Amino acid sequence: MDIKIKNYTIHYIDKEAKKTVAKIDYSKEVLSIDEFSITLVSEIHKSINESSTTKNTHFRENTSNEFTNSLNDYLSTSTKEDFFSFTKSLDDLKLKIEKEPLATGGYYVFVDYEIVNKRYISVVLLRKKSGINITKVGDVFKVNGTENINIDKIAMAFRLNYQIYQETGDDRNYIAFISTQKDGDVSGYFKDWVSAGGLIKNDKNTINFVSIIKSIPLPKDEEGKEIFKSRGDFQKAVFDSVNVRKDKTINLKDLGKQFYGEDDENTFIDFGTSNNMILDSEFKRDSEKWRTLVTIRAHIPGIEINVDYNKINSEEFSTNGEVLTIKSKLLVDQIVKQYGNR
User: By the 8 A CB rule, do 266 and 258 touch?
Assistant: First the structure.
């Protein structure tokens, strides 16, 4: 990935489980960019994209706090000074953690970066474990090696998609979370710290995934030929694959592996991210929205009809006994034009 880091630093919160006292050990300044920081941020970005626990949301409406205020101050200037002031919002998180007996500390990575000309602001908690070599050198924490970083080491994460966030009237979710809790929920104190609103709903996840299936390049075989004869066949295959699951769960990585191959399990996720179709990588399908993926097909000699499920009994298409009604001037014009040319 072509990544450009604008500002970046690491701080440490020291807190043990079942204790109610926490201490912050701050780096004294914004860190310089080196090969280790670039690798670390690349892995963080990749992990947020691919994690099955990633959730999507937005800031709470008509609400602000220390985190959002300092973040917006920074975004208005993009200076190192305001970036560092933004990272000091960790003071507020420390107070919240002290009220949570089971909460533990770790390294907090704050970073402003660009990937493929898209800007992101991320705050990520990395637990103090082997495999992440972070040490304090002088007055700052530095990463000395990143060979073993993986999703298991990311305990929590916040990532803001700046492009979506700054566009007026855009109702897409612009915040992504990672949580590794067993129930898949995001820790309450972490959500509260960043002033996060409700997580993305299943119907919205389903709508976005249906849009992806209807526009993503079709799978190809080893010779580069499309596996399915038509887009409709592909849509039906994905629909049937999901519907066999009794728990209604859609897992984008499992489906990516099934339809695009073991090495391309993130195809659906990557396509959605590239096209700003924000959705969780695992969610429960909304049955009504999911059925819009299906095309109803019927034919008699000389007549064949393909109709999207959501068009049945609409203003354009309806049935009554033996009568089928299609109301569309555009279709009539197309038929008349072709019939008249014969």
Answer: no
Q: Are 173 and 200 in contact (CB under 8 A)?
A: yes
Query: 0.70 cut: is pTM over it?
Result: no
Q: What is the spatial distance between Cα 123 and Cα 194, in angstroms, rounded to a whole number?
A: 10
- In the chain, domain spans: 3-193, 202-290
Phi-psi region of 78 (alpha: psi -120 to 50; beta: other; left: phi over 0): left
Burial of 173 (0-12, 13-18, 19+ CB in 10 A): buried
Question: What tens digit of pLDDT does each residue of 19-60 get?
Answer: 989 999 999 999 999 888 888 899 899 888 877 777 888 898
pLDDT tens profile 3-16:
999 999 999 999 98
What confidence category does residue 182 fall into, taking pLDDT thresholds of 50, 70 and 90? very low
Residue 59 DSSP label:
B
Residue 283 to residue 250: CA distance in whole angstroms? 5
- Rounded CA separation 277/242 (Å): 20
Return the beta strands (E) in 21-167 as ranges: 23-25, 55-57, 106-115, 118-126, 133-137, 140-145, 154-161
